[in-house]
Each structure stands twice: as C-alpha cells, then as structure tokens.
Amino acid sequence: MKNLMTFESYAILGRVETVTISNDQGQSITRDAKIDTGSYSSRISTEIAKELQLPVVDEKTITSVMGEEDRVFVELQFNIAGVEIKTMAGIVDMEDLRNEVAIGRKDIEMVDGLVDVKKDKPADNEAIEPTIEEVPVVEPTLQAVEVEVELPIDSLEDAKTAIQSFESFNKANN
C-alpha cells in the first residue's frame, strides 16, 4: 500500500526564510535566504564563505539563465524550517542582490519543503496582517432603447398578441 503524505508533513516555505549556515567547526551565522525554485543548487555570497572559512569541495560548470559559468562549491550545513541538512552551495558574488543566500530545489526537497509565494517572512517578527483591496462596485444600468418593429399584423387579434409578446419580453429583461 502506498503511503500518502499530507500537507502537515511538509515544511511550508515562503519566498524568503531565515536560515542558519554553519561550518564543521561550529561557527554559524543567520541570514534571510531567497527560496529559489528556479535554481537547482543553493548559493551563498563570497562574504559568507570567507567569514565561515568554508572548505572548497568542487568546481563545476553550471548553466543558468545567464549562460554557462564555472562555479566553486563549498560544503556547509543549513538549518531551514527546523531541519539541519549538510549540503554544497555555490559561491557567487551577491553584493548587488537583496539576499546573500539562495536556497535551490535540491535543498528545498531535502527539507520536504513546499513553497507558498503568498507566505511572507514577517519583518522583525511582526505578524503580517492580510489586506483586502477595495474594489469599486459597478452597478449595471439599464438603458431604454427605442425599437421599431414591423410585423405583418393582419387583424386586431394579431396586434394584441404582438403587444403581449412585447410586454412579456420587457418584463423578463427588466
């Protein structure tokens, strides 16, 4: 029998999550990380790699939207959503980016993560209040339209029937 997983068994991640990055010597730092489903592997800034003195373990040619590039990978531990994982991350110059850390699909999968793009990380532990935009309500308006209809009316009875049909039509459409 196949085991079914429920949403409760997944870590629901927002677009940005707080992560703790540590090396094998027990040094660690905490940063906000972008959850990047468009990237397979995770990335950290060169500053974080230097600060934690992370060991280089590999160099690979990776393909990104910017083309192919050679990237150095370091070994580290991430603690994200309460789960500690040992992984490799590429070292990238992230000076001009909002976040110094980006978590890729491989590591999102390792923490059984699902990404909810509507979930924001509260700034300074403040709760995020949902907002409802006010949308103007436009009431439908009816306009009187004058219509001339030529019907072949051969008798007074045909005229009465035509008037009743027209009145029924008006009632149904008003």
Overview of the molecule:
This protein is α/β, with parallel strands linked by helices and 174 residues long. It has a domain at 8-122: Beta Barrel (Cathepsin D, subunit A, domain 1). Helices cover 17% and strands 35% of the residues. The protein is built from 3 helices and 9 strands. It has helices at 46-51, 105-110, 156-172, and strands at 11-13, 16-22, 28-35, 42-45, 56-64, 67-80, 83-92, 101-103, 113-115. A 6-stranded mixed barrel has the order 2-3-8-4-7-6. A two-stranded parallel sheet has the order 1-9. Strand 2 (16-22) and strand 3 (28-35) form a beta hairpin. Residues 124-128 have low confidence and may be disordered.
Low-confidence stretches: 124-128
Run of helices and strands: EEEEHEEEEHEH
The CATH superfamily of the domain at 8-122 appears as: Acid Proteases
The CATH class of the domain at 8-122 is identified as: Mainly Beta
Strands ordered across the widest β-sheet: 2-3-8-4-7-6
| Rg over C-alpha atoms, rounded to the nearest angstrom | 32 Å
In percent terms, what proportion of residues is strand? 35-45%
User: What is the mean pLDDT?
Assistant: 80
CATH topology term of the domain at 8-122: Cathepsin D, subunit A, domain 1
Number of helices: 3
> Could you say which overall geometry the principal axes of the C-alpha atoms support?
rod-shaped
The helical percent reads 10-25%
